[in-house]
Design brief:
Layout (H helix, E strand, L loop, with lengths): L1 H18 L21 E9 L6 E5 L5 E4 L3 H4 L15 H7 L5 E10 L9 E14 L1
Parallel strand pairs: 3-5
Antiparallel strand pairs: 1-2, 1-4, 2-3, 4-5
């Protein structure tokens, strides 16, 4: 009898878990699109806020490469002075951390480049998702 109760509880939990939304709210400006999905990749890095343009930059740890963070391809259009560079849309778990002030966030980031990489230059990109985050003030 107890075994049946446990099985029923597990089954009920599994059905409930399927009903709970698995993804956070959708972005207003998509970062990863059908056109750029093949260029997106995961990297370990440090996101930091700057008092310059662009306001957020992601350092790919172990390299000298910097990504300037923008909203996404629909807002970028090759314009480094685009208005989306001061407060780019970030994944919700990352946005919560950077709202606490001038901080450095270490973690794993899914980055979608918005332009080709050029040696010695910051590369425009957007951040589709982030995980394993660590905050340092």
């Amino acid at each position: 009898m107890r075994h049946a109760s446990v099985v029923a509880s597990v089954l009920a939990f599994a059905l409930w878990a399927q009903a709970v939304p698995q993804n956070g709210p959708k972005r207003q400006i998509p970062c990863k699109t059908a056109e750029n999905a093949a260029t997106c990749f995961w990297t370990h890095g440090r996101l930091q806020e700057y008092e310059e343009t662009p306001a957020y930059r992601l350092w790919k740890i172990g390299t000298r490469h910097l990504f300037g963070i923008y909203n996404g391809p629909s807002a970028w259009r090759g314009n480094r002075l685009a208005i989306d560079n001061e407060g780019p849309e970030l994944p919700s778990n990352l946005r919560k951390l950077v709202q606490s002030g001038l901080v450095q966030v270490f973690g794993d980031f899914e980055v979608c480049p918005l332009e080709p990489e050029r040696p010695g230059s910051m590369q425009a990109a957007c951040i589709e998702s982030a995980k394993n985050l660590f905050l340092q003030k």
